[in-house]
Amino acid sequence: MNITDKKSKIPAAPTLAATGNLLSSVAPPSELPNFITSVSSPPVSQSEVRQTAHNQDAPAPMEVSPQTPENFSPAIPLSKGEPTVSIRSPVESETTQSPESLPESVPEMDAIGDIMPGSGLITWVKGAMSSGGILQKVAEKAKSSVDSMITTLDPQMKEYLRSGGDLYMVIASDKDVKVSPIREAFQTVFGKATVVGEAAQSDVTAEQPVGYAAAYAAAKQRIAHLRSVNAQLNNNVPIVAVESFIQETMPDRWYDVALLVLSQPSLGIELQVQSQGTPVPTAAVLAAREATPKDYTHAQTGYNTTIGSIMATNLQVPHTQWQEATTGVPRRELLLLASRSLAGSYKRILAVSAAET
Predict the structure, then answer these.
(1) 182 Cβ partners below 8 Å, 6+ apart?
(2) pTM here?
(3) Around Cβ 285, how many Cβ atoms within 10 Å?
(4) Spatial distance between the Cα atoms of 69 and 67, rounded to a whole number of angstroms
(5) How many CB atoms lie under 10 A from the CB of residue 234?
(6) Quick count: other Cβ atoms within 10 Å of Cβ 276?
(7) Which CATH code fits 143-356?
(8) Domain locations in the chain as residue ranges
(9) pLDDT tens-place string over residues 131-167
């Protein structure tokens, strides 16, 4: 058999015109089981699939619904992966932005309409420097720390740092044991205050007043004495007088008490505060009574010998420290607590008076 005969036995390849599309002879795929409860888009029929494949001369794509099963919970919500800006054209993207993509604040502009560089930083600095801002709090904390360090190294600097303000007050005494606690109390309550002490004597009562009435008369006398000898201390300047007295609350139960009187006639203010009492032995009172002459001028208001001098002699301590030696509470602390009460009452009255005017 020659080569020509062999070739003649090989069938010729069918042409497209004779057989049509090669996929037309392939059976359509069987329908897959449907696990989807609801379908958002209408299903595609088998005839449409064949028509599409015949027209495009390619295998028909298998449609898959984008819906997920009802019990399926994706880790990332569907909305997280969706773009908020359209990618079709720049013009359409300007109108399809979501609210989340918009800027939170509008940048500041100058007079000609240009955006000011660093406007966000400027806004933050303004807020930080405003009243109650973080920078102001840091500055106040730093100032407080510096003041504490200075007053620790030199306690006398506390008076200098807290002096000033709108309050000017005079104490009817030049003794530090009286002036120091009153100054500290008023500067604590008012923030800043100028408190000075001036010597003032009382010649209307005994050296050691007995009873509240005698102490009150002595305190009023000290205040009147200061106003009479100093023309600058007019009725608008508050003056505080301190007078210690003893009283018998019960038979043979004596206490030493300090009376504080604040007077400011221009506002019609007069405040009276008593300190905590310190027990006094009956023997010390009897000693002061026996030491007082019968013809003492102010015998009706008390004794000419103070309880402090008698207690200091018996306890072998200075006369300003006998309260601390007896009860453990120094006189300065007793006066400080009473002065804070006095300063608080005085501040409240000033606030009410200012509100009425």
Answers:
(1) 171, 195, 240, 242, 260, 335, 339, 342
(2) 0.57
(3) 20
(4) 7
(5) 10
(6) 16
(7) 3.90.950.10
(8) 143-356
(9) 556 666 665 566 555 555 554 555 554 554 455 578 8
